[in-house]
Automatic annotation (TrEMBL):
GO biological process: mitochondrial electron transport, ubiquinol to cytochrome c
Region described as Disordered: spans on this chain: 1-26
Matches recorded under Pfam families: UCR_hinge
Protein name: Cytochrome b-c1 complex subunit 6
Biased composition (Acidic residues): 12-26
Primary location recorded for the protein, binned into one broad class: mitochondrion
Record-annotated disulphide pairs: C37-C81, C53-C67
Compartment(s): Mitochondrion inner membrane
Keywords: Disulfide bond, Electron transport, Membrane, Mitochondrion, Mitochondrion inner membrane, Respiratory chain, Transport
Amino acid sequence: MVFEEKMIMNGEPEDEEEEEEEEEDMVDPLEAVRQKCAETEHCVHTQARLEQCETRVGSRSATEEDCTEELFDFLHARDHCVAHKLFHSVK
């Protein structure tokens, strides 16, 4: 009981809130690199093919086609770019 009172009087719970706020300001370098890589020419091309496929499949009422191949092509192109750039921004 005495320990709880000391915590309340010393303001330690407020310190925890400040630490949580600081953590929210951190930016994941992977997300930033993925965004930059998605804007490269090859990734834009594969993303356009993926969007065309999604439009085509979405316009049909009964189809067995899916866009798995196009999705994997886009993810492969983006991740290939990310692999070459990510570790330069990581400490």
